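Input/output pair, single chain:
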Amino acid sequence: MGVLPLQYLVGESAATYDLDGTEVFSIGGLDPLNRGETVHQVPVRVTRANGEVVEFDVRLRIDTPTEAEYFRHGGVLNFVLRQLAAK
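Output:
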């Protein structure tokens, strides 16, 4: 809950892009998922402290329709609470 499951593409890792955890990450391409469409890959834009920008694609690991519903509701807890409130 609260974590977007992303995976580097085959053969890539944090070392591939020289990431050290101090960067600011922006994840794009999630609008189709919010509309109920299937999304397998999304772009990542990384901005380093010096302003340098690195862009690459990652695999989105929302693999089932249920996981997609959880994401659209803002997590499992929100999903369950909305289900209970609807009863």
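The radius of gyration is 15 Å. The first strand starts at residue 6 and ends at 8.
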